[in-house]
UniProtKB/TrEMBL annotation:
The keyword Transferase applies. The keyword Transferase applies. The gene is crtB_15. It comes from mine drainage metagenome. One of its GO terms (molecular function) is squalene synthase [NAD(P)H] activity. This is All-trans-phytoene synthase.
Length: 280
């Protein structure tokens, strides 16, 4: 294992919070390529989020990643060592490049777009920010059938929506709101209320609507956990159960993510693994 792959594994194991990334549930032959995919996404996401760079500088960094993908696509040697390792993994597993481009498009969008008028716009963002990961995993597993891709898209989009729900305050500090604006108006939720961390009034009614929609979407993809065999099926069921755990915690606290941001604790993982092993 080269140093870049080892660093990617370390990054994957240290950065996840509520959902496992390249976890020990998976065979080692899959953990390494998944860690490289995660490292690509994490680095690109950090370009959009971290530090004090100007928007044009952030976009330039993402364009640099895009140019490296172009080199891989053209059969040329990438300039940076990380992309050379990534290119070898992509070739070895015959992965499509479009999901990598889609991720970069989503991260670029985060720099220039901070509000979403309706749920269709939010889902279009999820299509590029979350679904590519599920699609790449299915290609790694050799299970990228149309039916499985549909299941994976539902799971990944649902997990992205769940992340939006738990990170309302964090995203607002970055001047981002992923709630559909038309739904905020319908439930009389204002940006001032989010800024104040105010979960009173119609907040719980609004959050119930958002929680239940995410739950239905997650459940619509849940059969994938039974379709995928062996340890990859167990990993998928664990991820789904982790999402369900966050939704349950959101419901328990009436959607008050300002005072009770949900996090999966060590004792939750025991319950999640038990559920995943039982296939329930």
């Amino acid at each position: 294992m080269n140093s870049i792959t080892q660093a990617s594994l370390s990054l994957a194991s240290s950065h996840y919070e509520n959902f496992p990334v390249a976890s020990i549930l998976l065979p080692l032959r899959l953990r390494q390529p998944i860690a490289l995919i995660y490292s690509f996404a994490r680095q690109a996401d950090d370009f959009a989020d971290e530090g004090d760079l100007a928007p044009e500088q952030r976009l330039a960094l993402l364009e640099g990643f895009r140019q490296e993908l172009d080199r891989i696509n053209a059969g040329a040697v990438p300039q940076h060592a990380f992309f050379q390792t990534l290119a070898a993994m992509i070739a070895r597993h015959k992965l499509p490049l479009q999901p990598f481009y889609d991720l970069l498009d989503a991260f670029s969008q985060d720099i220039v777009k901070s509000r979403y008028e309706n749920f269709g716009q939010v889902m279009d963002y999820c299509r590029r920010s979350a679904n590519p990961i599920g699609r790449l995993l299915l290609h790694l597993y050799g299970k990228a059938t149309p039916r499985n891709i549909g299941y994976a898209d539902a799971i990944c989009s649902a997990l992205q929506l769940i992340n939006f729900l738990q990170d309302v305050a964090i995203d607002y500090r970055k001047d981002r709101i992923y709630f559909p604006q038309d739904e905020m108006r319908k439930f009389r939720i204002t940006e001032a209320q989010i800024a104040a961390g105010d979960a009173s009034g119609t907040w719980w009614t609004f959050m119930q609507f958002e929680i239940e929609r995410a739950r239905r979407l997650l459940q619509s993809g849940a059969p994938l956990g039974l379709v995928l065999p062996g340890r990859i099926g167990l990993e998928m069921r664990t991820i789904i159960a982790g999402g369900e755990t966050i939704l349950r915690k959101l419901h328990q606290h009436h959607g008050d993510v300002f005072q009770h941001r949900p996090v999966v604790r060590s004792w939750d993982w025991a319950r999640i693994l038990f559920k995943a092993i039982r296939k329930k």
